């Protein structure tokens, strides 16, 4: 908008008195969309005010980008010039929303006459002003102007206008205007002027000539439901065989699907499945020397057999992979692929597009690093290459090939070492072809960088959950994720461990600690995942002095005991079932922490509609803890002194509680958690 001293010739510029600002949500001045899933209520607010004391009307306008017309909904004043409204993002895709507001002169007029009449003043002149408002309403209701009743026709003198069938509203409004002008019916006119009928018509046919339209049209990116609620299981397909020393195949993975689906997982994430290079191939335990026969790291992508659009032959063929995707679908599961933009020196790109790799002055290429980690078996791709357009197009092509195989979820390895603008472009491009595609950002880095990736289009993001342990840390982190601006665009995906991270907190192998870490991930966040067989078996032996696993299957084929069941597999299966049956666990931001007298017991309410859960966990894996939980009964519609039942969905136990303060005791060696459904 130009400055006032430029005396803009924009129509209405000098007459628009309403200001619209401090819109929420609005990300970075409208640069990025907020996120939703179909059916979400998008609640918005703005400061809307004008000079003087006039009454205002404000509307929220929204539309799906497939629609041409905007839908309008009235905004309600909240407090101190803050206004609010909401709409439902019904379908997938992009919605836009903005605001418009204007001075509601008839409402201001009506308010003033109320005061004058109450003060005993006569309002004859005011009624005439009211009549002109009604004339305006007549016009906007589709009625012809009151005067003149004849129209001029060029060259033929005056001709009588054809009588037009007027609408009910027009007739009523004309009658009211006549009434306001009829000095003999003063009392009747005053009563109409003060009536709801007048308010109704003033709102139905508003004068919007000098309205203010908000400067931005803001976006809502609506992803499919799995963006909001998903349960991930990671496995290396080459370790899916049931025979020592045998390379696993996609068919072996298919054989595991019934088990993984019975445990309640709906996304099966596979680390890279492409040919693995020979040059600088790594050996067992991250050794830079590879012994003959060692399989290398799946992230060392590319060989003579192909690159990112090829499949590692020992796993199967493209058709086998498509078959796996189809069978997984029968079990209600999706396969997520891993995008790692890097190349073994043997990758076809290294030979065909040497300009995509940065050469050092001596002509060699520096291997990739994520300090302090060294990835000596791969070249990083050089995004500052002069040939960047072709590089981007090739990466997009790869993703479209994966889409053509039926893949609709992609976990992206280290996205934070590639330009943000690339992600924004490629995600949008791929979604044009495959609107269902979801991207998970595996960025363990600075907060601002993680946030920016989410804003640019990643549907899910890895988080710091893995390193948040105490009740205080957990509450603080959850508050940051769910109460501030991040709640609009950053969907956390909680992982207690990953194939890269064997956290110090779990290296003791202490079972209660594993159970607690699992349970919190699955109940704090609607999206969570586990590094499958390793986590189930509570694998914990570290590579010395590192947060990594000894004998990691990143470097070797492992034989897992897929038949093993234990307390962890039991808890996982049960909690995943509870997550499916309780909608309150299918959203992350519906959380309220409760005060507990013990500093290790954490309690949180999760409420969606009538589904009300109270989750209590002892974060101290070594000691029995007890304390009083303060239940915010006012949020639950429970009266002081009223008793209510809490039903533990984990154990089947019922407790009768009363009022706000209730006693809990949790022994980590028995079961360090409650998952209560509140029944009033
Ligand atoms: O850097 P991160 O900790 O986020 O880990 C991710 O990226 C790594 C590089 O792709 C990847 O590392 C693994 O693959 C490398 C290339 O083959 C190899 O040199 C590393 O030793 C191995 O850990 C890691 O698995 C991935 O999740």
UniProtKB/TrEMBL annotation:
Record-annotated site: Transition state stabilizer: 500
Pfam family, one: GLGE_C
Binding site residues for alpha-maltose 1-phosphate: 282, 342, 377, 414, 554-555
MF (Gene Ontology): hexosyltransferase activity; hydrolase activity, hydrolyzing O-glycosyl compounds
Swiss-Prot/TrEMBL keywords: Carbohydrate metabolism, Glycosyltransferase, Transferase
Catalytic activity field: alpha-maltose 1-phosphate + [(1->4)-alpha-D-glucosyl](n) = [(1->4)-alpha-D-glucosyl](n+2) + phosphate
Membrane spanning residue stretches: none
UniProt-listed Enzyme Commission number(s): 2.4.99.16
Database matches in SMART domains: Aamy
SUPFAM superfamilies the UniProt entry points to: (Trans)glycosidases, Glycosyl hydrolase domain
Class of this enzyme: transferase
Glycosyl hydrolase family 13 catalytic domain span: 234-579
GO biological process, one term: alpha-glucan biosynthetic process
Family according to the record: Belongs to the glycosyl hydrolase 13 family. GlgE subfamily.
Function description: Maltosyltransferase that uses maltose 1-phosphate (M1P) as the sugar donor to elongate linear or branched alpha-(1->4)-glucans. Is involved in a branched alpha-glucan biosynthetic pathway from trehalose, together with TreS, Mak and GlgB.
Designated name of the protein: Alpha-1,4-glucan:maltose-1-phosphate maltosyltransferase
Native species: Spirosoma pollinicola
Phylogenetic placement of the source organism: Bacteria, Pseudomonadati, Bacteroidota, Cytophagia, Cytophagales
């Amino acid at each position: 908008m130009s400055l006032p001293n430029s005396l803009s010739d924009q129509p209405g510029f000098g007459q628009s008195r309403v200001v619209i600002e401090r819109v929420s949500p609005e990300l970075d001045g409208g640069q990025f969309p907020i996120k939703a899933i179909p059916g979400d209520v998008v609640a918005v607010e703005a400061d809307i005010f004008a000079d003087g004391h006039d009454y205002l009307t404000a509307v929220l306008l929204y539309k799906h980008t497939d629609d041409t017309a905007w839908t309008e909904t009235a905004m309600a004043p909240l407090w101190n010039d803050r206004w609010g409204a909401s709409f439902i993002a019904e379908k997938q895709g992009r919605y836009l929303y903005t605001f418009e507001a204007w001075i509601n002169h008839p409402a201001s007029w009506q308010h003033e006459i109320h005061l004058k009449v109450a003060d005993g003043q006569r309002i004859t002149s005011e009624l005439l002003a009211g009549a002109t408002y009604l004339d305006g309403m007549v016009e906007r209701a589709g009625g012809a102007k009151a005067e003149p009743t004849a129209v001029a026709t060029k060259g033929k003198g005056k001709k009588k206008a054809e009588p037009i069938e007027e609408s009910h509203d027009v007739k009523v409004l004309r009658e009211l205007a006549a009434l306001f002008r009829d000095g003999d019916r003063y009392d009747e006119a005053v009563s109409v002027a003060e009536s709801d009928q007048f308010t109704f018509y003033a709102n139905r046919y508003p004068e919007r000539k000098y309205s203010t339209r908000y400067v931005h049209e803001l976006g809502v990116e609506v992803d499919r439901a799995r963006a909001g609620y998903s349960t991930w299981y990671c496995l290396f397909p080459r370790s899916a065989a049931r025979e020592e020393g045998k390379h696993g195949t996609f068919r072996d993975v298919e054989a595991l699907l019934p088990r993984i689906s019975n445990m309640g997982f709906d996304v099966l994430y596979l680390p890279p499945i492409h040919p693995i290079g020979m040059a600088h191939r790594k050996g067992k335990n991250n050794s830079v020397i590879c012994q003959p026969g060692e399989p290398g790291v799946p992230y060392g992508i590319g060989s003579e057999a192909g690159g990112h659009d090829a499949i590692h032959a020992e796993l199967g063929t493209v058709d086998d992979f498509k078959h796996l995707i189809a069978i997984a679908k029968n079990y209600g599961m999706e396969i997520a692929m891993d995008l790692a933009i890097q190349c073994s020196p043997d990758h076809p790109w290294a030979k065909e597009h040497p300009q995509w790799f940065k050469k050092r002055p001596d002509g060699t290429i520096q291997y990739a690093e994520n300090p302090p980690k060294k990835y000596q078996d791969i070249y990083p791709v050089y995004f500052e290459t002069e040939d960047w357009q072709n590089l981007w197009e090739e990466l997009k092509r790869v993703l479209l090939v994966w889409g053509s195989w039926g893949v609709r979820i992609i976990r992206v390895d280290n996205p934070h070492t590639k330009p943000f603008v690339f992600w924004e472009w490629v995600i949008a491009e791929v979604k044009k072809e495959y609107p269902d595609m979801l991207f998970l950002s595996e960025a363990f880095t600075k907060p601002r960088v993680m946030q920016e990736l989410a804003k640019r289009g990643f549907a899910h993001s890895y988080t710091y959950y893995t390193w948040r342990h105490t009740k205080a840390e957990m509450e603080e982190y959850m508050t940051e994720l769910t109460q501030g601006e991040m709640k609009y665009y950053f969907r956390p995906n909680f992982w207690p461990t990953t194939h890269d991270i064997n956290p110090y907190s779990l290296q003791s192998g202490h079972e209660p600690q594993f159970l607690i870490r699992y349970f919190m991930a699955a109940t704090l966040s609607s999206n969570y995942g586990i590094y499958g067989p390793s986590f189930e078996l509570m694998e914990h032996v570290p590579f010395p002095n590192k947060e990594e696993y000894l004998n990691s299957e990143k470097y070797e084929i492992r034989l897992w005991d897929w038949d093993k069941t234990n307390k962890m597999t039991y808890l996982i299966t049960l909690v995943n079932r509870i997550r499916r049956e309780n909608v309150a666990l299918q959203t992350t931001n519906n959380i309220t922490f409760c005060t507990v007298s013990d500093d290790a017991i954490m309690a949180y309410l999760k409420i969606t509609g009538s589904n009300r859960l109270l989750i209590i966990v002892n974060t101290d894996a070594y000691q029995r803890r007890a304390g009083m939980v303060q239940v915010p009964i006012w949020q639950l519609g429970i009266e002081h002194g009223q008793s209510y039942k809490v039903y533990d969905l984990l154990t089947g136990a019922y407790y009768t509680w009363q009022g706000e303060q209730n006693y809990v005791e949790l022994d980590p060696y028995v079961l360090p958690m409650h998952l209560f459904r509140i029944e009033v």
